[in-house]
Amino acid sequence: MTQGKGANKRDVVIEVTASLMFPFILLFGLYVMMGTGGTGGGFQGGTILATGFILYITVFGTDKGREKMPESVNVFFKSFGLFLYNGAGWLCILFSLATAQWLNMPAFWPVTEFTGVAGARGFLIAYMISVGIGLTVMASFVSQYFDLSMKEDDEMEGDEG
Amino acid sequence: MKPPAMKPLTISGFITAILLIALSIYVVEDLPAFGDENSPVNKYVKLFNVDADGLVESLNAGILPLQIKIKIEDMGFNKEENYPTLEEGNYRIEWSEKGSFEGGRLSEGGWDILINEGEIFYNEPIRYYFIKEENRNLTVYRYNFPVRINELTEEETATINIVTAGLADYRGYDTMGEETVILTGAIGVILLLRRRGRL
Amino acid sequence: MEWLIQHVLEKYNFWIAMLIIIIGLTATIVKENLLKKLIGLSIFQTAMFLWFVSLGDVGRNILTTWGLKTGTPPILWEQAAEKGYIYVNPLPNVLMLTGIVVSAATTAVALAIVIRIYQKYGTIEEDEIIEKEKEFERVGG
């Protein structure tokens, strides 16, 4: 029976396995996220990255998990991913005067002079949109898991707050 | 001993199950078979049949006969509903043999009608209609959107992953809204569960 | 016997998906524990994705390299047109991909609401919560 945080028995096999698998899961998630030259995409890579963090938090507890993903880094990833994608989208709507054609972004972008229209759209898909989606999905899933599994030791029952 | 009376919740659950079974039989009966090669959602839709009296020569010469043009516009593919018009000089007719490999796809024997759309980035002619001849009848089909996606993705966006190109480029605004929903979910959990100054 | 093959055996995907939909939806209505209702809702959403994605399968009579007779996944490769393969319809896959992730996020919000209900009432059975609500009203809040 547990009486506080430090009374659980530690198991060596599970801890070594989890700490060995953790960097390889993150590397595979990054490989899937940048894979528009084959299978892959933003949503799929983001959830694989979140799975690595959730494995580490489940084995080691929330206190040690907080060192890997502190609160400020979490908030930065959440907002930076949304800023990349929504920034590109709202610029398109403004510059095309709300005719809502996604294609007009290569018309005013300076990258178009080097690669042409098709290359500019490929650059947008692979490096700006996928990365934006992946970071937001990873950060929001990890933060939801932290909130649902944190124990409040000093809260009374039936309290409304 | 009498069994205990059923609660109203279980009775309503069983009634829902029976209604759903009846609805599913009604819906699944009309669907095409799973994995059907010629299902109309994935290839082309049949429009109408016309007698092939003297029309084959004018199709081979590159002019669309007047009967077919009037019938197509009567069905609703005209200028008022924002479809491209079938005027002179706006279209082109191509003939391909059955089993030949041209333009990157395996073709069945027939005439393809290619129409200029006249927008900013869509300058090349796009396949719209397809005419086949069988049993002294001419059947007119209309290509569906998945055919255009499969053939033109490599030219327009330089990616070979059709699913990601459809998510991020052709349907980009939908994905923008769904990402906002995911962020709102994370904020909702924070507001519900963090108390006493831990925010 | 022909109607059996034509209506039942050729469309086995849709029948299985409707069976799981029925299981999920009756579980949401009949069960009284709040967590079991949420699990039924999640089962229902997963079966809906299966039903929608299997509308787009094409090409049953062409032999592929791995021995099955289906269409290939919608990623362009050069040998597909020479050998006569057909790509699967990409549109249902595109539309359901965001739906899967959004359903996971909304399940998390629902679980947070269940935790707050437990902290206030002390149980997660439905009829006990209704009795405690009536007592609250009778006593005066």
UniProtKB/TrEMBL annotation, chain C:
Transmembrane segments: 12-31, 94-115
Gene Ontology cellular-component terms listed: plasma membrane
InterPro entries registered for this protein in UniProt: CPA3_antiporter_subunitC, NUOK/Mnh_C1-like
Major place of residence: membrane
UniProt keyword annotation of Metal-binding present: no
Coiled-coil ranges per UniProt: none
Keyword Cell membrane: yes
Membrane-topology descriptor: Multi-pass membrane protein
Pfam family, one: Oxidored_q2
Keywords, ordered alphabetically: Cell membrane, Membrane, Transmembrane, Transmembrane helix
Annotated localization: Cell membrane
Protein name as it appears in the record: Na+/H+ antiporter subunit C
Native organism: Methanothrix soehngenii
